[in-house]
Specification:
Number of strands: 18
Helix content: 10-25%
Oligomer: single chain
Largest sheet: 8 strands, mixed
Order of helices and strands: HHEEEEEEHHHHHEEEEEEEEEEHEE
Shape: elongated
Number of helices: 8
Distance between the termini: 102 Å
Strand content: over 45%
């Protein structure tokens, strides 16, 4: 039984394509290489020279047919929606490029340790990671986990080849299965299955899958040509353009006057799509292509209750009974919010001082009526002294609102006022 790149195993399942000058297995060794091996039964013995027969030169580069397509460059426009807007529109233009894609397989020379055994015990009852018990949709992942040298893509190719439809009971049988899978996968555009699984990682896979053991084994260093896949992409401007006329229509997507939200419209020459940036509404989009270059997006909004922004303006006047604070909510519009919605303002007066050491003179709360309130400060804050400067801080809280939760807004910084 052999652990290595067996000619018999490869030729048994060879196809004309595999025997051509561009296939992998025709160049598994460098010409007339002399390598040293270690003969061992259980543990290593003395060094033994091993002569490897000459092999063909480096395989030819494989060039696949180029694939040509015409694509637009992605172009984006950002639109901002304000309180009263129910429609937004824009036109996006993009250049059309000729895109040529080509897959190329080249080869690089790498050196691996290989194992050759005259006899080895084992019946494949190692750890296959549940490959044979797994449902079909999991088999590729299980095989990639069990067999070193396979990724999920190449493992799926091996599964599709049905080379492992029944479990190989000897290493020779496993080698033959990998040669069969390698031939199938090459036809599907996947290269190097046999080289990686048998040559590069043969010893590790034998131990993992239950084929290791035996006697009279020789470890050698082997040089092989390993396939490297490249995907080349070339783009050229054709001088042509494509454009998309975009219309956004909003339904049930309310905003307060101080709120805005933005939409990024992207066009790639064929498809147009929308991305939303808004803490205020969640959107479900339905698109309808009206013509070859016009598309309409219907947006069904679902309002989110967010912490309110501080939309208050305030003025301080000297009234007959002392200082008066006039408050106005710039976001108030009659009939915009729920009938039972209320806006409460928390007012804090601080004495002029040094930074964080400003002392609090007093606090009070007031409810706005139709977005406004006039507060007589003297009766509420008896510590106010005429002629001294004070800071005024205001926060608003909306109760029962469709727009906001009931957390207070940030405190709006103010200038100093002389009362």
């Amino acid at each position: 039984m052999k652990f290595k790149n067996s000619l018999t195993a490869i030729l048994m399942f060879a196809t004309p394509a595999m025997l051509a000058a561009s296939t992998l297995e025709e160049a598994w060794l460098t010409p007339a290489s002399t390598l040293e091996g270690v003969r061992a039964t259980g543990q290593a013995a003395g060094a033994v020279p091993v002569i490897i027969n000459a092999a063909p030169p480096q395989p030819k580069t494989i060039l696949f047919d180029p694939v040509v397509s015409y694509e637009g460059q992605e172009r984006s426009v950002v639109l901002t929606r304000h309180f009263s807007e129910r429609e937004l529109t824009t036109t996006i233009q993009t250049p059309i490029l000729e895109v040529v894609r080509q897959k190329i397989i080249t080869y690089k020379l790498e050196t691996y340790e290989d194992i050759n055994c005259d006899y080895a015990a084992g019946d494949g009852r190692g750890d296959w990671k549940g490959f044979y018990e797994a449902p079909n949709y999991e088999k590729a992942a299980r095989l990639a986990e069990a067999v070193k040298g396979l990724g999920e893509t190449t493992a799926q190719c091996v599964v599709d080849s049905r080379a492992l439809s029944s479990k190989p009971r000897t290493w020779n049988a496993f080698e033959s299965a990998m040669a069969e899978a390698d031939a199938y996968c090459q036809e599907e555009g996947h290269y190097g299955v046999y080289s990686r699984v048998i040559v590069q990682y043969g010893g590790e896979n034998a131990a993992q899958l239950g084929y290791a053991g035996g006697e009279e084994c020789t470890a050698t260093k082997t040089q092989i040509w390993v396939p490297v896949e490249e995907n080349l992409v070339k783009k050229k401007d054709t001088g042509r353009t494509a454009q998309s006329q975009v219309l956004l229509i909003f339904d049930n997507a309310p905003l307060l006057p101080s709120e805005t939200e933005s939409f990024t419209i992207t066009f790639d020459g064929q498809k147009t799509w929308v991305q939303t940036s808004s803490p205020y509404n969640q959107y479900t989009w339905v698109s309808q292509k009206d013509s070859s270059n016009a598309v309409t997006f219907q947006a069904a909004g679902h309002r989110q209750q967010v912490t309110p922004g501080n939309s208050l303006t305030l003025q301080v006047f000297s009234g007959s009974s002392g200082p008066e604070l006039w408050l106005t909510d710039q976001d108030y519009r009659a009939g915009l919010d729920q009938d039972n919605a209320q806006t409460m303002v928390s007012i804090t007066i601080k004495k002029d001082g040094w930074g964080p050491f400003n002392s609090v003179v007093g606090k009070t709360q007031v409810y706005l009526t139709e977005g406004k309130a006039k507060v007589m400060l003297a009766p509420k804050m008896r510590g106010l002294k005429p002629g001294e400067a004070y800071f005024v801080e205001c926060q608003l809280t909306r109760l029962g609102s469709r727009f906001n939760n009931e957390r207070p807004s940030s405190a709006k910084p103010t200038q100093k006022y002389k009362f």
